[in-house]
Structure prediction request, 530 residues.
Amino acid sequence: MMGASVNGVLAQARFRPEFIWDNRDIFLDGVWLTVRIALVAFALATVLGLAVALLRMSKSWIVKPIMATYVNVFRAIPLLVFVLFVYYGVAIHFGFSTTAIQAGVLALTLQYSAWLGEIFRSGIQAVADGQRQAAMSVGMSRPQTFVRVVMPQATRIVTPPTGNMFIGMIKDSSLVYIIGVPELLRVSNLLANRTFRYFEVYLGTVIVYLILTTLVYFLFKYFEQRFRLVDVLTSKVRSPFAKRRSARLRQLQEVVMENRDAEASIRLAAE
Amino acid sequence: MSETPTNGSDPQPVVRLREIHKSFGSNHVLKGINLTVHKGEHVVIFGPSGSGKSTLLRTTNLLEIPDSGSVWFEGMEYGPGLDYEDYPKGKARMLRQEIGMVFQQFNLFPHITALENVTLALRRVKRIARPDAEMRAATYLDRVGLLDKLGAYPTQLSGGQQQRVAIARSLVMEPKVMLFDEPTSALDPELVGEVLAVMRRLAESGMTMVVVTHEMGFGEEVGDQNIFMDDGLVVEQGGREIYKNAQEPRTQEFLRSIL
Prediction:
């Protein structure tokens, strides 16, 4: 199959879309690594970003400037430069037994934790102060208030920008090709250099990235829809879960109405 | 009208604020407030904006920690305290479980239903199992007339309905005292009545209440202790006659200006 590599300029000029399909195994290997790198780096960056956000809101005069520096440094360095720095500049130079993949993931994680940290911080701070006061006024502790009241609201606020960051991660993961990680861009480069079918190869690469980012777009769109709030009792949603929920509330209403007369109930509202 | 509990020979104090001072930066908001709230008593606080009414209320359940002074609640002392008296010290969280608060902006949790708003603290603070918590919460929502709104999210409710859910959210914790911070100020005029009606019934049921409000009619109806505050100080306090027969010129002037 690879033997037909140098067939002259005229043959090269003819567009052969089937070339992409014929080399699908090579693309798929690359995509699979791209997906794994993006998922792992994004998961780590999310955890680290949450820590960055919380520490940046610390009142300590020592933690605050350290975290501000962290964010500004990692945001300031171009990612390609940073990938080279982490692998050749640090890992290889100082003889750490780090693989190129690990170094690439580390570089992506650090930079994205800075960006995500800023997004999460803005989301947490966008939750109105009255929410915290209301939670504390019924006796909830600070951790309870954060987990039960602030976090769920902040999550809804940060979902769209976080989706953008995930799409960014998939695209930026291509930059680790420079340190020899055989992800999608790297295997595409190798294939193109070997076959000279630059148009077909990079068209295939473009299509694959498009498919990946479109999938992520629909995933986050689904999340945003899940967050839409509809009255449980009058909801038109007919999922088994929604039905169970509204049935339980109806039952609750009936029990309460039955007990109304039994206890000498204090009616506070005008009938 | 119901009997004023303070008429009894031995009125039982529930909350005592003593020598409360609070500043925000260079702004001295509370300048030594003393206030005793007795069991079943309805305290109504009024005064111009910026006079420290809301801060006083928020200090009572320690959402603001006073710079100096003491919040005494049922034999325990909270806040910085007073040096010359020795009461056991209490934790702010314990106090807040026993003192309910209703806010001007309702502050319902927008991401959960009305029912979940009312069960949240029962389950997480009092550790009551879900079926029992839901039963209690639904009963209180029924009392404020919102049994049909169990499954609604706050944005689907009118302002008056939201404020009634907020009242149920506080009441379900069975507090000893209820604080109201201008509960009708953010409402459209036609919705004020339904919230005031609930508060009136609550007062008649014997609940101890401290209400900051601009609804002078409410004070005239249920106020046992009526307090006019200005510039961080209690200017005048008294019974319901204060609204018709204020003694202090500043009180008279304020009452004239809002009528």
